[in-house]
Write a structure and sequence with these properties.
Number of helices: 18
CATH architecture of the largest domain: 2-Layer Sandwich
Largest sheet: 8 strands, mixed
Distance between the termini: 37 Å
Helix content: 25-40%
CATH superfamily of the largest domain: Bira Bifunctional Protein, Domain 2
Radius of gyration: 29 Å
Structural class: alpha+beta
Number of strands: 28
Shape: globular
Strand order of the largest sheet: 10-15-16-23-20-19-17-18
Length: 577
Amino acid sequence: MSDDLETLRHSTAHVMAAAVLDLFPGTVIGIGPATDEGFYYDFAFQDRLLPEALPKIEARMHEIVKAATPFVKQEVPRTEAVALFERLHQPLKVELIEEKVTEPTARLYRTGDFVDLCLGPHVPNAGKLGAFRLLSIAGAYWKGSEKNQQLTRIYGTAFPTQAELDAHLTMLEEAAKRDHRKLGKELDLFLVDEMVGRGLPLLTPKGAAIRHQLEEFILRLERRQGYEHVKTPDIARLELYKVSGHLERYHDSMYAPSEMEDEEWQLRPMNCPHHIRVFQRKPSSFRDLPVRIAELGTVYRYEKSGEVSGLIRVRAFTINDAHIFCRPDQLNVEFERVIQLILQVYRAFGIKDFYFRLSLRDEVSNKWMGDPAIWQRAQDAAREALRASGHPFVEAPGEAAFYGPKLDVQIKDAIGREFSLSTNQIDFLLPERFGLEYVTSEQTMARPVMLHRAPIGAMERFMAYLIEHYGGAFPVWLAPVQVVFIPIADRHLEAVTKLAERFRDRDLRVEVDGKAERMQAKIRNAQLQKVPYMAVVGDKELEGGTLNIRRREGGDQVSVTVDQFLAQLEREAQLPL
RNA sequence: GCCGCCUUAGCUCAGCGGUAGAGCAAUGGUUUCGUAAACCAUCGGUCCGGGGUUCGAAUCCCCGAGGCGGCUCCA
């Protein structure tokens, strides 16, 4: 976002706050910054704010714009600023001055009667605002901490011109159509059933077809890269998580253990402990390393009820997991290989809109486990491997896992929310806690380093992303239905059914639309279901042994022989390895 | 979990104190059709659940569940 746009949006937030105070005297104001998408301002209203109020607030804002009320900068002594906001009954502003303002003076901006603690800059007067729209109301904790009171946040957006605002609003509407929850229903890919439980999505036959293709793709790719796949249970003795440290540091996200025959059993929240025990089944020599143990491992995490959403955030999900056990001298190479694998996966799906985020430890939180010096080594190793990859990345202090630094790949969903897709961690801690070791060339024992990595991340979330990425129009290799056969009249149905069998025998996913409908209606249905190919068959085709192929993308239909089409489809149905 | 809004047929939605509606889907029939919706008929509802107010509640109030937006958290 340019500085000018930020100034415009921030100024719009001020005008919104001014309008709110005009309409709802006694409202306490929080903060109101610009964001990548627009702006917001947080308020403590005396009564709850109804959505119907937004147009009224907008109307009042337009009056302020029309009056071209100037923004006036003012430097006042700190004590005077405190007194001013006390007089105005704005306790949150007083709190901010006391906490944040270290200079002897505080900077204020006035817009008419409205006065705000603010560094600026602002547009010269309210007449210089562009086009704006208030969008939604939401709750938000004061200063972002759930320990604090909850304020009411009004989100809006602003642009220099009406045309840009309109384009943005149209874009939002278009994006909402790609929402995987909407497409999941329309294309019959998955459902979340109240009786089964929230956060526990059920894949339908079509959704499962996509999932199986994804699994096939990643398993084969990993096999080529020297991973060994294992299969381990979704549950373990609680003891396992006592040793790993999950019970101590991760219990908030874990389902409660269940007790049977005087033993406690834990639904697993992570796969690493199981994989570690597989690694430990036999002694390892320095020659054996790296050992790469992989599994599509399902984990169970109790996400808070307000956090679950579609396939993006669920309570049972399958991680494209692997744990690489390597010598310290192999760490950088292995980490770089992981980065390359991620890039390869993303290329296969044409995913370009992502960035790397290196999550580090901070000094504020106390959730970190293990020796800070070891952490430092892990963080340095990650940074070094990332630099070597030549890919830009951002650092995020305080975002690491409790056992080590993380490298996440960040993406945005259809409506602009950011999520981690891939996640990877360097871990010196679990090898320590489980006492992992290998025999060195000097016949001494040494501790291996562990790398957790998941290029696809959670299969569910990745699938959600793909649904939105492709807008439901999956490439042939992923499409749940690759071809719909459309007989023109009833008399063609039997022959077409036999034809479809030939495709099914070749592992192609085809359907025959035998409904009592006109061809046009069947084409429309296939089109709405975003099936890549429609094969229309009537008298002409049956006589000539051909198919009339219509593509989902439109364009001219082509007449091809059955064998030609079979060959073409088999080619397009190949995994993108 | 927290703040706010929403929940009516399989789906999308109307109705908002006075006998539950539409379109699509489904089912039956007629039509047998050449590239994005043929026609007719029929079926389909604990109006999310529970409690209350009222002569009367889908509609008003309270509690709960689920969904949505956001916050917190996160793959």
